[in-house]
Design brief:
This protein has ten helices and eleven strands. The chain is α/β, with parallel strands linked by helices.
């Protein structure tokens, strides 16, 4: 297995795709996606463009849809929800199509949506992603951070490092470290794995969320392996619970 880490979707190769792409946006899109599917939403459909989301979601009955999204960390005006995973309980999202647009994570999903397999990961479902990769043994795996508006983000890299560290520890002989970013991400995770919340507080996006009263979101997003759900792409932009 050839393992790559890319800090942002803009850094991924443009002339080919991996057998399996793992999209990571810990604060908060992929944390929210896993939470929504655990809460029994019918599916999560992602959009980078707000108007496109509005057009497509109009085809669903109001009681069968949730429009959720943020720009700059704040809820899109007129939407049902922002991008806080804490708002996504079974009473709110159960049985509904969850239409989601975010500043960074949905753009990363769009970049790799034509790969044969696309899954999403966050710290809360890290082990589910690791289990899927170990069981299916794709030949090439990209761990793709979403970053922030094209820039590096600590929280996505530490999650990529957590996945890479687990894969390499599980079977060092079968995993080929294919770029230096894998080593750097694994080292970051090794340094901070016991204190992820402090790291998230120090990160630029964590600071942004704290200014928006997002402390509880940070606490939730920093938890490891509390959700045993793997979101997997069923069709471009549409994620369902892997079973």
């Amino acid at each position: 297995m050839k393992l790559f880490v890319y800090h942002t979707p803009e850094l991924t190769p443009t002339d080919h795709l991996p057998d399996c792409a793992v999209v990571i946006d810990v604060l908060r899109a992929t944390t929210t996606i896993a939470t929504v599917l655990e809460a029994s939403a019918e599916a999560v459909q992602t959009f980078s463009d707000i108007q496109q989301l509005m057009t497509v979601s109009e085809q669903w009955l109001p009681e069968k849809r949730i429009r959720a999204g943020e720009r700059g960390g704040t809820k899109v005006e007129g939407f049902d929800l922002g991008n806080s995973p804490l708002d996504c309980n079974p009473e709110t999202v159960g049985g509904k199509r969850f239409f989601l647009t975010t500043t960074n994570g949905t753009r990363a999903l769009q970049r790799v949506q034509k790969a044969p397999t696309v899954i999403t990961a966050a710290m809360i479902n890290r082990q589910a992603a690791v289990n899927y990769i170990v069981e299916n043994q794709p030949e090439t795996v990209w761990l793709v951070g979403s970053g922030w508006e094209g820039g590096y983000s600590l929280e996505d890299t530490v999650c990529a490092g957590a996945i890479a560290h687990a894969l390499i520890s599980n079977d060092p002989q079968s995993v080929e470290v294919s770029n230096d970013e894998v080593i750097a991400a694994s080292a970051l995770y090794t340094q901070w794995h016991d204190n992820l919340l402090e790291m998230f507080h120090r990160s630029s996006h964590g600071q942004r969320l704290l200014r928006l009263n997002g402390h509880e979101d940070l606490q939730y997003c920093a938890k490891s392996d509390i959700v045993d759900v793997l979101p997997i792409q069923k069709e471009p932009g549409v994620l369902v619970k892997f079973s």
